[in-house]
Design brief:
The structure holds 2 protein chains of 2 kinds. By secondary structure, chain A is mostly helical. Chain A is built from 18 helices and 2 strands. In chain A, strands 1-2 form a two-stranded antiparallel ribbon. Chain A is elongated. Chain B has 16 helices and 2 strands. Chain B has a two-stranded antiparallel sheet. Chain B starts with a helix and ends with a helix. The chains are: A mainly alpha, B mainly alpha. At the A-B interface, α11 and α12 of A face α5 and α12 of B.
C-alpha cells in the first residue's frame, strides 16, 4: 500500500528528486573520476619533477575534498530522503533486495571519506610514495562504490527474468547476484566510468581556469592540456557503450524513444527522446568546445568558458540520467512495480495473486491509514455523483476519497497545477471525458498508447468514481457567485 | 612504400590542392588579410562575440527554414501542414522548434549586441554606417519574426497578428492604408499568409543578406571599437589577439555553446501548436504579440486607456517615433570623447532606453 504523504506543490516530487540526483551525480562521478585523477596527476608530477604541480595539487585536493566530502555526501542523503518520501514502496523493495549490497557500499564510502581526508592532510607530511598509495586506495574505494550502486540502479530498468521469477515470493535474496549483475549492469558501468573520467577533466578545467597565467604560464598551459585528455576516452567510447546499453534495454521500453522521434504529443510522453537528444548533443560537442576554448591557447582560458563547459557537462550528465529514469516508464522496477507503487506481480506467499487484482476487488484505499473509520464508512454508502457545489458530508467524503486516490496513484508523477499539472491536462475535458480516461487507464487495451507510459489505475468502481469527481472539481473549480 | 616517403607525398598533394585553389580564389591574400586583423582584449571583450552569435542563429534560421519549406504549404492548408510537421513527420517538431527558438534567440542576441555597441560607444566616427546597417538588420529580423509568427495560422498566431497590426494601423493618416496593404484585405486570412510567406522567404532574406554584407564589410574596414575607458589607456598597455585563428576559434566555441543552449530549449520546451484559428471566434483572453513587440504594444495599450480617443495611440506613436529617431542619430549627437556632455547624454539615453523597453515589456506581461 502506498503512503501518499509527500505533496510537493507546483514542481512535484519527481523534479525534486531529479534536481538533487543531478547535483549528486555531478559530484559523485567527480568523486570517482577525480579519485583516479589525483594520484595520476601526483604520479606524473613526481616522475617528471614538476614542483609547480606538487605545489598546486594540495590546493586542488582541498577543493576536491570539500566538494565531494560535503556536498556529495549531503546530496547523497538527500536522494535517500526524497525517494523514501516520493516512492516508499519502491524504496522499501530496493532495501529488502539489496540491503547487503548497500552495507558493503557504505563500508567503501567510509574508506573513501577517510582516505580523501588523509590524502589532503598528509601532503608533505608523509613520504611521497606512501602519500601516493593513499591516493590509489581512495581511487579504489570510490570506484567500488560505483561498482555497487550501479547494480542497484540498473536493476530497476532490467531486473532480469531470473529475479522476476521469484519476485513476491520472499525468495528474492536467493537471486541477489542475478538481479545485481542484470542485463544493463556492464554497459552502464562502462558508461558511468567514462562519464566519471570525463567529469574529472571538466572539474579540473574549472580549477585550472583560476590559475594566474601571468604568474604561472607553464603550469596553466600544462595543466589545461593534460586535463583536456581526460575527456577523450568518453568522447571516443561513449557512443559504442551507449549502443551496447540500448541493445540490452527491453524493446517495450525503447518504444518510448520511437514515439518521441515522430511527435511531441503534448510533450510529456516524449520526454525520454528529447532528454536523450540533449545528452547526445552536449556529449558530442563538449570536447570540441574544450579544444577550441582551452586546449589551443590555455593561457587565455578563463572561468567564464570553464563554467560554460561545466554547464555542458551538467546538461550531458543530467539529461542522460533523466533519460535513464524516463526509460523505465511506467515502472519503478520494470515488470515488477509501477510508478504508483502498485506491484504487477504476485505478492505474499499465502495468497499469491496480482496486487492490482486485489486493489480492484478489495479497494485501493481499504488499508489506508489516512482516513478515520467514520470517513471510510461514508465511502461505502452507495453510488454517488460529482457534487455541483460540495454541499453534503457524503459529497465531501467522495472528494476526500478522490483526493486520497489522487495522492496515492497520481501524485508520484503529476501535480495539481504545475509540472504535468492535472488542471492543464484536464481543463478542456468534461466529467464524462475524464471518466473515459480513467476507465481506459483502469482496464487498458493491448493497443492503448497509454500502456507505454502510464500505470494501470487500481481501485474499485466507487473509488474511481471518487477520483473522477475530485479531478473534475480540480479541473473546473466551482465559480464563486457574483455579489 | 617506405615510412619516410609517405609524409612527403602527402605534403605534395596538399600543396598542389592549395595552389590550385589559391590561384583561382586568392586564398593567400584572404589569409594574409585575416592574419593582420587584430581584436582588442579587455574586460568587456565578451560583448564582441554577440555579433557572431547573432550571425550563427541566422544561419540556423536559414538551414531550418529550408527544411521547413519542404513540408510547409502557405494558404488555406497552412495550419494542416504545420500540424503534420509538428505531430506526424519524424523530427519535424525538432526542426520547427529549432526555427522558432533560434528566431527568438537571434532577436535577443541582436538586442544585446545593439545595446553593448551603444554602451561601448562603438557608433562614433567612423562607425556610423555600421550602427545604421545594424539597426536596419534588427528591424528586418523583427519583421522576420512578425511575418513568421502568423504562418502556422493557429489561434494565438492569428489573434496576435491582428493585435500586432494595430501598431502600424495607428500611424496617423497612412496607418489604415498601410495595415490593409500588409493584410492583403480588410481581414487577416489566407491572403495575408501568402503575403507574409512571400515576405518571409523571399523579400526579407534578400534584403537581410545585402544589409549583412554591408555590415560585415564595415566591421572589417573599421575593426572592433574599444570602450572609452580602454581608449584612454596608452597603446603600450593595450592587448590584442589575432582575429585568425585565435578570435575565430573562440567564436566557434561560442557558437557551439549557443548551439547547446538552443538544443536545450528546443528539447525541453518544444514549440507547441494551438488550435486552428477561427476568424469568427472571439479573441481568447490575454492575446499579445511576441515579446520583442511587447513594449510598443503595452505603451499603446496604456496610453490608449489613459487618454481619450485616438490621442493615446497618437501619443504612443509619437514617443516611439521620436525615441527611434534619437536612437538612430545617436552617432551624430555623441561623436567623440571630446564632447563630454554629448557623451553623457549618449550613455544616459542608452540606459534610459534599456530601462524603458525592459520596464514596458515586463509591465506588459504582468498585465496579461
Amino acid at each position: 500500500m502506498n503512503y501518499p504523504a509527500w505533496d510537493v506543490p507546483v514542481i512535484g516530487s519527481g523534479l525534486v528528486i531529479a534536481a538533487i540526483a543531478i547535483f549528486h551525480v555531478m559530484i559523485s562521478h567527480f568523486a570517482v573520476g577525480g579519485g583516479l585523477f589525483l594520484p595520476m596527476a601526483e604520479r606524473y608530477a613526481l616522475k617528471s619533477g614538476r614542483r609547480d604541480w606538487l605545489e598546486f595539487l594540495p590546493r586542488y585536493s582541498k577543493f576536491f575534498l570539500i566538494l565531494t566530502g560535503v556536498f556529495g555526501a549531503v546530496s547523497g542523503v538527500g536522494i535517500w530522503f526524497s525517494i523514501g518520501l516520493a516512492s516508499p514502496e519502491g524504496t522499501s523493495s530496493l532495501i529488502h533486495n539489496f540491503v547487503f549490497g548497500w552495507a558493503i557500499e557504505w563500508v567503501f564510502f567510509l574508506v573513501e571519506l577517510t582516505t580523501a581526508a588523509v590524502y589532503y592532510y598528509t601532503w608533505g607530511r608523509i613520504p611521497d610514495k606512501l602519500h601516493l598509495q593513499v591516493g590509489w586506495l581512495y581511487a579504489g574505494a570510490s570506484f567500488a562504490t560505483l561498482v555497487i550502486i550501479n547494480g542497484i540502479l540498473t536493476f530497476m530498468l532490467t531486473p532480469g527474468q531470473s529475479w522476476l521469477d521469484v519476485a513476491g515470493t520472499g525468495e528474492e535474496p536467493t537471486r541477489f547476484f542475478a538481479a545485481f549483475f542484470n542485463p544493463t549492469y556492464f554497459p552502464s558501468l562502462a558508461l558511468r566510468t567514462l562519464s566519471c573520467i570525463a567529469l574529472a577533466g571538466v572539474w579540473a578545467l574549472v580549477v585550472g581556469s583560476r590559475i594566474d597565467a601571468q604568474q604561472h604560464p607553464q603550469l596553466k598551459t600544462d595543466w589545461i592540456r593534460w586535463t583536456t585528455w581526460w575527456l577523450v576516452p568518453g568522447f571516443v567510447l561513449m557512443p559504442l557503450c551507449l549502443f551496447w546499453y540500448i541493445k540490452m534495454v527491453p524493446g517495450s521500453q525503447l518504444e518510448l524513444i520511437q514515439l518521441g522521434i515522430s511527435t511531441i504529443g503534448t510533450g510529456t510522453f516524449t520526454q525520454v527522446t528529447r532528454t536523450l537528444l540533449v545528452s547526445v548533443m552536449a556529449s558530442a560537442t563538449i570536447l570540441a568546445v574544450v579544444y577550441l576554448a582551452a586546449y589551443r591557447k590555455p593561457v587565455d582560458f578563463q572561468i567564464g568558458y570553464a563554467l560554460a563547459i561545466l554547464l555542458l557537462g551538467v546538461a550531458a550528465t543530467g539529461s542522460a540520467e533523466m533519460s535513464r529514469e524516463l526509460l523505465r516508464k511506467p515502472y519503478v522496477v520494470v515488470d515488477y512495480m509501477y510508478s504508483n507503487g502498485v506491484r504487477q506481480v504476485a505478492t505474499g506467499t499465502q495468497e499469491p495473486r496480482q496486487e492490482l487484482e486485489r486493489f480492484n476487488t478489495a479497494g485501493y484505499l481499504a488499508d489506508t491509514i489516512w482516513a478515520t473509520p467514520d470517513e471510510k464508512s461514508l465511502w461505502t454508502e452507495g453510488p454517488r455523483t460529482a457534487p455541483p457545489d460540495s454541499a453534503s458530508p457524503a459529497e465531501n467524503a467522495v472528494l476526500a476519497q478522490g483526493e486520497l486516490m489522487f495522492r496515492g496513484q497520481c501524485l508520484a508523477c503529476h501535480t495539481r497545477d504545475g509540472y504535468r499539472g492535472m488542471q492543464r491536462l484536464l481543463h478542456e475535458r468534461n466529467e464524462q471525458a475524464i471518466r473515459n480516461i480513467l476507465t481506459m487507464l483502469h482496464t487498458p487495451q493491448e493497443d492503448s498508447p497509454y500502456r507505454a507510459f502510464m500505470p494501470p489505475l487500481a481501485g474499485t468502481g466507487l473509488e474511481i468514481d471518487a477520483l473522477c469527481a475530485y479531478l473534475d472539481q480540480l479541473a473546473h473549480p466551482p465559480v464563486a457567485p457574483a455579489d | 612504400m617506405t615510412r619516410s616517403s609517405s609524409p612527403a607525398v602527402e605534403r605534395s598533394w596538399r600543396s598542389r590542392l592549395w595552389d590550385f585553389c589559391d590561384e583561382r580564389l586568392g586564398l593567400a591574400e584572404l589569409l594574409e588579410l585575416s592574419r593582420h586583423k587584430m581584436v582588442p582584449q579587455h574586460a568587456h571583450s565578451f560583448w564582441y562575440y554577440l555579433g557572431g552569435i547573432s550571425l550563427f542563429f541566422f544561419a540556423i534560421q536559414v538551414l531550418t527554414g529550408m527544411l521547413l519549406l519542404v513540408y510547409f504549404q502557405p494558404g488555406p492548408s497552412a495550419y494542416e501542414s504545420v500540424r503534420r510537421i509538428t505531430y506526424d513527420i519524424d523530427f519535424g517538431w525538432l526542426i520547427r522548434s529549432a526555427h522558432s527558438w533560434s528566431a527568438n534567440l537571434m532577436v535577443l542576441a541582436l538586442l544585446a549586441h545593439m545595446f553593448s555597441v551603444a554602451l561601448m560607444k562603438a557608433y562614433r566616427k567612423p562607425r556610423e554606417f555600421g550602427w545604421w546597417t545594424g539597426l536596419g538588420l534588427l528591424g528586418l529580423t523583427m519583421t522576420f519574426g512578425f511575418s513568421g509568427y502568423l504562418l502556422p495560422m493557429d489561434e494565438l498566431a492569428f489573434f496576435a497578428t491582428k493585435v500586432g497590426l494595430e501598431i502600424p494601423a495607428s500611424v496617423p493618416l497612412v496607418g489604415p492604408l498601410l495595415a490593409g496593404l500588409i493584410r492583403g484585405g480588410p481581414n487577416v486570412d489566407a491572403n495575408t499568409i501568402q503575403r507574409f510567406f512571400t515576405l518571409h522567404v523571399v523579400v526579407l532574406p534578400v534584403l537581410f543578406v545585402l544589409g549583412l554584407t554591408l555590415h560585415l564589410y564595415l566591421v572589417q574596414r573599421h575593426g572592433n571599437a574599444v570602450p572609452p575607458g580602454e581608449e584612454a589607456k596608452p597603446d603600450s598597455t593595450r592587448r590584442y589577439i589575432k582575429f585568425f585563428p585565435d578570435f575565430f576559434v573562440k567564436d566557434l566555441a561560442m557558437w557551439l555553446i549557443a548551439l547547446n543552449l538552443l538544443g536545450l530549449l528546443v528539447c525541453l520546451f518544444p514549440w507547441q501548436l494551438g488550435t486552428q484559428a477561427d476568424p469568427a471566434a472571439a479573441a481568447p483572453d490575454g492575446v499579445h504579440p511576441e515579446w520583442y513587440f511587447m513594449a510598443p504594444f503595452q505603451l499603446l495599450k496604456v496610453l490608449g486607456s489613459w487618454l481619450p480617443g485616438a490621442v493615446g495611440e497618437l501619443a504612443g506613436m509619437l514617443i516611439f517615433a521620436v525615441g527611434g529617431i534619437v536612437w538612430g542619430i545617436l552617432p551624430l549627437i555623441d561623436r567623440s570623447s571630446d564632447h563630454p556632455r554629448a557623451a553623457r547624454f549618449g550613455t544616459w539615453f542608452t540606459w534610459g532606453t534599456i530601462a524603458f523597453v525592459a520596464g514596458l515589456t515586463a509591465w506588459g506581461y504582468l498585465a496579461l
